[in-house]
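Course assignment 3, question 2. Fill in each field.
Student: A.L.
Task: Predict the tertiary structure for the chain below.
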Amino acid sequence: MEEKVRKRYYSMKERKEFRQLIIEKLEKAKKNLALLKESFSNDQNNNGTDDTYPTFKAFEEGSETLSKEQNAQIMEHLQKFIQSLNSALIRVSNKDYGICRVTKKLIPKERLIAVPHTTLSIEGKRQVEESKKNF
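Answer field:
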């Protein structure tokens, strides 16, 4: 009976494919971040003097504040995403890309395509969540 040998690392060809996917996502995220920053700085320069009615102005300022907070949260999320993608590129170069940091098993290709910056397999993620519940 022949036993299937479990693959420990992704091949050079596979890592190149992952690298390209990560670079594409990284470029898109950087472009989105630049657009948000530009939009954010344009909002800062706008004095909001278009509307002189006090009631409407109060609503507008409240909405504007909420929008700025949301944009700031999105920018923070994008910056973390970019950092995670850069870390994934380093792992690709180090040849340890796709290895779950909890189980030490190879993360399935489908998961890496969906979430190329992940460091956890589904099994590893469940173990982390379980350990959080126990604390």
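Instructor remarks: Residues 68 and 106 are 41 Å apart (CA to CA). The chain has a mean pLDDT of 83.
Grade: pending
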